[in-house]
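Dear all,

This email documents one entry for the complex benchmark we are building for the journal club exercise. For each entry we list the sequence lines for every component of the assembly. Then comes the predicted three-dimensional structure of the complex as a token string, followed by one or two observations. Please use this as the template for your own entries, and keep the labels exactly as they appear.
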Amino acid sequence: IAGITQAPTSQILAAGRRMTLRCTQDMRHNAMYWYRQDLGLGLRLIHYSNTAGTTGKGEVPDGYSVSRANTDDFPLTLASAVPSQTSVYFCASSEGPGWNTEAFFGQGTRLTVV
Amino acid sequence: QKEVEQNSGPLSVPEGAIASLNCTYSDRGSQSFFWYRQYSGKSPELIMSIYSNGDKEDGRFTAQLNKASQYVSLLIRDSQPSDSATYLCAVIEQTGANNLFFGTGTRLTVIP
């Protein structure tokens, strides 16, 4: 089934450790996004990529980095995890960017930093 | 960044009633508006998009857009218990990267 796959689905991580959340899509979408979702704060954009080879910062980029070496993959790296990065992380993709682009989401990664 | 505001709820309606969900946005230049549904523990899924002033109907769902008032709403007719979820309003900014910004969501409970 075509779509977006995230891995792992959940992870408990010690503070200070490095972690990469993986995201792969097979819809040949140009744009990809990483959001975090926290209770009461909704979905907040961390980083985005409008096309392979380019990335940009969203609302809450500090402590995170991304790369977009090809169309399908958009990994999110936490260089040195802190407890405030405990959240549910969603990867999304769209045909866009564009004014009428519709985003599709992966199943999410629940990350707990202890 | 642009602001998207929703009443967090919870909103409770009886089965068969009309549920009305509201959203306001701050970027007057925004042209694209979306409603996503998110079940507890699941990822958001797109249920409606609207780009022009007025109403757009899709089955039991109607999206309404008023750009002058910077207001977008979602009506769910004949509400069912399976409609119980959090509904997220999302807006695409029109400058820079055309990114999608979300409200915090309204939690809807349909009571059998």
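Observations: Chain B is about 0% helix and 55% strand. The two ends of chain B are 40 Å apart (CA to CA).
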